[in-house]
Automatic annotation (TrEMBL):
Annotated family: Belongs to the peptidase M24B family.
SMART domains per UniProt: AMP_N
Full protein name: Xaa-Pro aminopeptidase
Enzyme class per UniProt: hydrolase
Catalytic activity: Release of any N-terminal amino acid, including proline, that is linked to proline, even from a dipeptide or tripeptide
Length: 470
């Protein structure tokens, strides 16, 4: 009798039960599947990757479940480099590009196939389909992904067989797979960096997904405004739950932990506890993004007067941030240095802070010394895509020291944050935090604001709230 898990209520499996479980199942092979519409795009992305590493074997794992406690796990999210190169989201898999003599590569997607019904694996254990849900067969995956698929249970053997081939693996995703290959840490980091570089410019299919993510997010923000009075009666949790419902209904999830920050919580950049009160007269800073089924995420922020209208000080701060965002967005166009939007926004905010007497001028000096950062805190934006902070490992000369190109998607998100205990500003400014964040697509002659469906100016925000606030 096979032994069960520690403190499980069953001691094991009798041979009779095992035999019973193996019989009486219908053939559920899926026929007539169509290739995923992303498949040809993923093939082009692999060709671009292949061209960067002739003669080398590349291993790009999808990742594994991470333990929360005992046999409980965190929700799985595949490594973005794997998703981008395959269009697949399965766990325990890997893409392997095997070098060919002509300098190109053959691609193999290693997957955990369906469990046969001739062993106990399909109903007992970590990967059992009866507990975890049906997977695709390798044949099904080949059709859907348009990619040769192999059984991941033989990957270590396959990699050992060609161990003389110079190999790179993306580290930090699948420790067992990492242990199966001998590679150099620096060269591996270059592979990760190249996978980030190749995501800087989105293809047409990805741009379509970004539009879906942002459009859902716009609906999620409208939902939250419609629920404001319930949030006032409850807490920030109501806002978080309201946005999450939209994310789950229309997408896969939220692309990052929603920031539902009312009152002085708006001054905390990574406020995700979302357990505070929502009080009329204060501001609600909502920073949230829907992640599509294909795992592309939006990242949008609006700062809303909970009572429907801004107080004079709130409006003064809000309008300064709005103008800074306008200045930043005007700098988003092809050929512009990436940093230009950040510099334009920060300079504007530095000028306002000098004018208000919160930092010492002249403005050029204040900006060069970065004095505005006491109140602006963060950089003014970042690339956006499969990850909220997308392309994070890209080469600096391609990203922050590079120039904007059509197809890039980035956020422009200036903010001002006056901490509740900041004695350098008048009392009525303390505890005010404002950020306005939009998602911009660089086009052939400028940019398109993908999140333009939400109001931005203080007057438009008030008009929108008067229409939708519940
Ligand atoms: N929500 C994270 C960010 O705005 O960068
Ligand atoms: Mn954000
Ligand atoms: Mn952002």
């Amino acid at each position: 009798m096979a032994k069960g898990r520690k403190n499980g209520l069953y001691n094991g499996v009798s041979e009779e039960l095992s035999a019973l479980m193996r019989t009486g199942w219908a053939d559920t092979e899926r026929h007539g599947l169509e290739p995923d519409e992303q498949a040809p795009y993923a093939a082009r992305r692999r060709a671009a990757l292949s061209a960067r590493f002739p003669g080398e074997r590349l291993v790009i794992p999808s990742g594994n479940l991470k333990t929360r406690s005992n046999d409980d796990t965190y929700p799985f999210r595949a490594y973005s480099g794997y998703v981008h190169m395959t269009g697949d989201q399965a766990r325990d898999g890997a893409l392997v590009l095997e070098p060919r003599a002509d300098g190109g590569h053959d691609a193999y997607c290693y997957q955990l196939p369906r469990d046969g019904r001739d062993t106990d694996e399909f109903w007992i254990g970590y990967t059992a389909e009866l507990w975890m849900g049906r997977r695709r067969t390798l044949a099904e995956s080949e059709v859907v992904l348009g990619l040769a698929c192999r059984d991941v249970r033989t990957i270590a053997e396959d990699l050992a067989a060609g161990s003389a081939v110079p190999t790179r693996i993306v580290r930090g995703i699948d420790p067992a797979l990492e242990a199966a290959v001998t590679t150099d840490e620096e060269r591996d980091a270059e592979l990760d960096g190249t996978l980030s570089d190749l995501r800087l410019v989105k293809d047409e299919w990805e741009i379509g997904e970004m539009r879906k993510a942002v459009d859902s997010t716009v609906r999620g923000f409208t939902d939250c405004v419609g629920e404001l009075s319930r949030a006032v009666a409850s807490s920030e949790r109501w806002i978080e739950g309201t946005f999450f419902r939209r994310a789950r209904l229309e997408g896969n999830h939220v692309g990052y932990g929603s920031i539902c920050a009312a009152g002085e919580h708006a001054t905390i950049m990574h406020w995700t506890d979302n357990d505070g009160p929502v009080r009329p007269g204060e501001l609600l800073l909502l920073d949230a993004g829907v992640e599509t089924h294909s795992l592309y995420t939006a990242d949008v922020t609006r700062t809303l007067p909970i009572s429907g209208t801004f107080s004079p000080v709130q409006r003064q701060v809000y309008d300064a941030v709005y103008e800074a965002q306008e200045a930043g967005m005007a700098a988003v166009k092809p050929g512009a240095p990436y940093r230009a939007f950040h510099e334009a926004s920060q300079r504007h905010l530095a000028a306002r802070l000098v004018e208000w007497g919160f930092i010492e001028g002249p403005v050029d000096r204040a900006y060069e010394l970065g004095l505005q950062r006491r109140f602006t805190m963060a950089g003014t934006g970042h690339m956006l895509g499969l990850d909220v902070h997308d392309c994070a490992q890209a080469r600096t000369e391609e990203y922050v020291d590079g120039v904007l190109e059509p197809g890039m998607v980035l956020t422009v998100e200036p903010g001002l944050y006056f901490q509740p205990d900041d004695l350098t500003v008048p009392e009525e400014w303390r505890g005010i935090g404002v950020r306005i964040e939009d998602d911009l697509l660089v086009t052939g002659d400028g940019h398109e604001n993908l999140s333009a469906g939400l109001p931005r100016s203080s007057a438009d925000v008030e008009a929108w709230m008067a229409r939708f606030a519940g």
